[in-house]
Amino acid sequence: MSEFATTPSGDRIAYDRRGSGPGLVFVAGAGPFRAIDPWTTQTAELMADSGVTTIVYDRLGRGESPAEGRLDLDRELETLATLIDVAGGSAVLCGHSSGCSISLAAAARGLDVAGLVLWEPPFGAIDGGAREWAGEVERRIDAGDLEGALAHYMKDMPPEWLEGLRQSPEYPQFVSQVVSYVGDGESLAWVESAPLDALLRDVRVPLEVLLGQETFPELFDAAERIVAAVPGSRWLQIPGADHTWEPAAMAAELTRFVTAAATERVR
């Protein structure tokens, strides 16, 4: 059964908490929420059995976390600060896709982040067009063209993803929830706004970038640039395909990472 937490601004966040031990919060990218994401739930369950406190939540405007108004990056980070408290006051963040840029922004702004695991961050080069792309998505949202906003958000993704979504019974729900993608767009524009070593100069926590063994070639460049910007970080590949991880392999790697980060933190 869902638990709920309320942010200082009054946003009510639905989440599942499992396990006991050092904490990890999963940060979804654009689209997923608990009811349609069995991979994250399964990963969290496996980790909880291995001595990790896991938090899986519905981001603002999705699932059981309805929200009104502009769902921007500031509200996303306030949500994360609240859930880090739920996890014990400090937690590793595991970002998926644009959840990676939200997680990095949380660490850069000084939230009590114990470590960062970034699954397939889709970061472009400096001034790579994310600011204009995110602005057009938000312009369409403001105009009430939610279907157009979703199409524009997904314009650089494999076209079969959008076509498959259009054939899905969940398509109307995805259209209505595109208002929750504003924070994703803002965070992706932020990581393109300056060199990563400048943006991440204060991020000095354990960090690793994970790519699936079947992935997109452009993601290797992003992984290498992140690792170059944060001393002591690394990237590696584990089982996964189509931008999704394999739960057992991911749970094992995350458990190892969280345990090591907790040990390093108490030294």
From TrEMBL:
Keyword Thylakoid attached: no
Residue ranges of domain AB hydrolase-1 in the record: 24-250
GO MF entry, a single one: hydrolase activity
Keyword Membrane (UniProt): no
Keywords carried by this UniProt record: Hydrolase
InterPro entries documented for this protein: AB_hydrolase, AB_hydrolase_1, AB_hydrolase_fold
PANTHER family the record matches: AB HYDROLASE-1 DOMAIN-CONTAINING PROTEIN, HYDROLASE, ALPHA/BETA FOLD FAMILY PROTEIN
Record protein name field: Alpha/beta fold hydrolase
